[in-house]
Amino acid sequence: MYTYPFRPKTPYVAVDGIIKVFDKENFLGIVLIERKNAPLGVALPGGFVEIGESVEQALAREMKEETNLDVDIVRVFGVYSDPARDPRFHTVSVTFECVATGKPRGADDAKIAKIFRLEEIPWEKLVFDHSKILRDFLYGKRE
Amino acid sequence: MYTYPFRPKTPYVAVDGIIKVFDKENFLGIVLIERKNAPLGVALPGGFVEIGESVEQALAREMKEETNLDVDIVRVFGVYSDPARDPRFHTVSVTFECVATGKPRGADDAKIAKIFRLEEIPWEKLVFDHSKILRDFLYGKRE
Question: What UniProt keywords apply to this chain's record, in alphabetical order (chains A, B) (predicted)?
Answer without folding.
Answer: Hydrolase
